[in-house]
Amino acid sequence: MAAVQRLFRAAASGGVAAASRRCMTSLAAEQAAPSAAAAGFPFGAEEKLRRRPAAERNVQWVFLGCPGVGKGTYASRLSRLLGVPHIATGDLVRDELASTGTLAKQLAEIVNQGKLVSDEIIFNLLSKRLKKGEDQGESGFILDGFPRTVKQAEILDGVTDIDMVVNLKLREDVLVEKCLGRRICGQCGKNFNLACIDVKGENGLPAIYMAPLLPPNNCMSKLTTRADDTEEVVRNRLKIYNDMSQPVEDFYRSQGKLLEFDLPGGIPESWPKLLHILNLEDQEELKLAAA
Ligand code: ADP
Questions:
Q1: What residues does ligand 1 touch, defined as CB less than 6 Å away?
Q2: Which of 35, 94, 133, 240 could form an S-S bond across to 138 if both were Cys, CB 3.0 to 4.6 Å?
Q3: Cβ atoms of residues 90 and 228 within 8 Å
Q4: Reaction(s) catalyzed by this protein (predicted)?
């Protein structure tokens, strides 16, 4: 953790790649030193312990996509199917916002304008979440909303291996409607969407239908809207995504890790197709059969 913070300080002053390499070794040494030393590993072997081959650990995936595309919906479904944690940095930020800490006021101002939170804050929240998961024996992850800048992607690359990056895509007019339709139940915390998307295919774009995801009666009177889901802020978030986060797609594309997925419609149509391109249909059948 301290090493991650050192990495940020070093990265902020330039030379991200070199800083990543330097700090990766010290992070590994700091976190794995006691057990590695006890096991008699020579210095430097810790790094190999942390970077375990994909076949020996759970998946380490990233979900990319514009606000409102459904990263949270599909990442959380996959996390349940694969038994790995779904870690959404937006949720970590909102948990912090809901607390009474001094950071909350500072964050509210940034988030409610649709701007990105500083790398330092995001990595702090993420490090705490990863540490908590590690203590509880979690392995693997599906990251949602992180990395959001090339610098975050480079730093992540310096500390762990990402196996695959799923890039969810949807036309922009639909994204805005979906964000404006989002609701959260203040009591059970579940997400719903009141928007009924029904756009005709035109100008070479396919028609798209997405049924609303309506809450049960007992949630209806407790629905809340995210403060950053107003039209002005959503459009600002989309602009920031195009400026800051689209280059992250190129970053992973050049590594051959990017899997593009154009959402064909709502969950009933999109989920089976997503499982198909991820080669996970059998996994779901096994899970359904066992339920
Ligand atoms: P979205 O619906 O825009 O994808 P998220 O729930 O992922 O929203 O994030 C909400 C807000 O939290 C963002 O607008 C931003 O202010 C902050 N945030 C989340 N993840 C990051 C990140 N990786 N870097 C910087 N800011 C972030």
A1: 67, 89-90, 93, 110-111, 114-117, 122, 145-146, 148, 152, 228, 237
A2: 133
A3: no
A4: AMP + ATP = 2 ADP
- Rounded Cα distance between 140 and 27, Å, is 18
Q: Whose CA is nearest to atom 18 of ligand 1?
A: 90
Helix (H, G, I), strand (E, B) or coil at 226: coil
Residue found by looking up tokens 């030379």 in the block: 15
What is the distance in A from the centroid of ligand 1 to the CA of 35?
Answer: 36
Reported as a pLDDT band with limits 50, 70 and 90, residue 204 is confident
CA–centroid distance, residue 6 to ligand 1 (Å): 23
* pLDDT above 50 for 15: no
Distance 187 CA to ligand 1 centre (A): 23
CB–CB of 186/223 below 8 Å? yes
User: Which of 6, 94, 171, 226 is an active site residue?
Assistant: 226
Closest C-alpha residue for ligand 1 atom 15: 116
147: preceding bond cis by omega (within 30 degrees): yes
**Contact yes or no for 30/2 (Cβ under 8 A):** yes
Amino acid symbol at 29: A
pLDDT by residue (tens digit) across 240-288?
999 999 999 999 999 999 999 999 999 999 999 999 999 998 877 767 7
Question: pTM (2 decimals)?
Answer: 0.83
Q: How far apart are CA 7 and CA 22, in angstroms?
A: 8
The enclosing H or E element of 144 equals strand 141-144
Based on the residue annotation, tell me whether 94 is a catalytic residue of this protein: no
Grouping H, G, I as helix, E, B as strand and the rest as coil, residue 143 is: strand
Length of the chain: 291
Proportion of the chain above pLDDT 70, given as a percent: 81
